[in-house]
Amino acid sequence: MLKKGFVILFLLVLSAVMAYVYFEFRVPEGVTPMGDSSETIAWISLFTAIVSLITALIGLVDKILDNKKK
Predict the structure, then answer these.
(1) Residue 31 in domain
(2) Could you tell me the end-to-end alpha-carbon distance of the chain, in angstroms, rounded to an integer?
């Protein structure tokens, strides 16, 4: 499944979107959040961005190695 170009592209786009969400929802330095869940959303999106990027890179490397074998 990771060898399909669409899946790799989707994971890269998902990673970029989640990184944007992280930077949009994180709490700035020196500000104390008061009951807002935006910091939680930021951390979840950062984790999702990192996992998506790693998965996309693994799929891309796997696809490149398969093409070199042929």
Answers:
(1) no
(2) 19
54's CB contacts (< 8 A; 6+ apart) are none
- Kindly report the pTM of this predicted structure: 0.77
Residue 54 domain flag = yes
Q: What percent of the chain stands above pLDDT 70?
A: 91
**What is the mean predicted confidence (pLDDT) over 2-17?**
87
| Domain hosting residue 50, numbered range | 5-26+37-69
CA-based nearest residue to 41, from 30, 20, 26, 19: 26
Average pLDDT over residues 15-24: 91
